[in-house]
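Cross-check.
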Amino acid sequence: MIASVRGTVLHVGLDHVVVEVGGVGLQVRTTPATAAGCTTGREVTLATTLVVREESLTLYGFDSSEARGLFEQVQTVSGVGPRLAMAMLSVHPPEQVRQAIAGGDLVALTKVPGIGKKGAERIVLELKDKILAMGVEPSLGATPSSGAADATSNQVQAALVGLGWSAKQADDAVARVATSGAPTQVSEFLRAALRELGR
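Predicted model, tokenized:
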């Protein structure tokens, strides 16, 4: 297993980065927030996990080993694959995902595209005891971030379209977040917009 990569960022996409390691450019799938935190030409270190399929080898990258561990853990649930696991980490930070599972917060989990009520119930049923055993406190509900982030709205809109929403849906979500006081960081702005789309 490739546990981590460190090298110069050659390219930053909406949901991936290309990192040069030993003269080889590795495409690493990430959350939009992680990709937004990378800068072309600068060195980056990502915790990674390699997903092997019959037709493909896909490297997934995370800004912390905690996020990687959660990505791997949620895939032990029937019906949850890498794509859905990445969607969970795109909508909520790792700690909020764990708190939602520990507290049985179905509302938070169903804000993730692709997770319905039954899927959320299955995730809670299969992982709640394991998460609680790690000492995670149940969530009391996430509080949206606030602040001004007009300069990042175009980047967030493009990221939402890249995740599969229409341009109109993305524009509406960005506008709603901006009206209620948008976060200044791209990652927080994106999470707030994803929460809006999950309502």
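Residues 141-151 have pLDDT under 50 and may be disordered. The chain has three domains: 4-62, 66-133, 150-197. Passed to J.P. for a second look.
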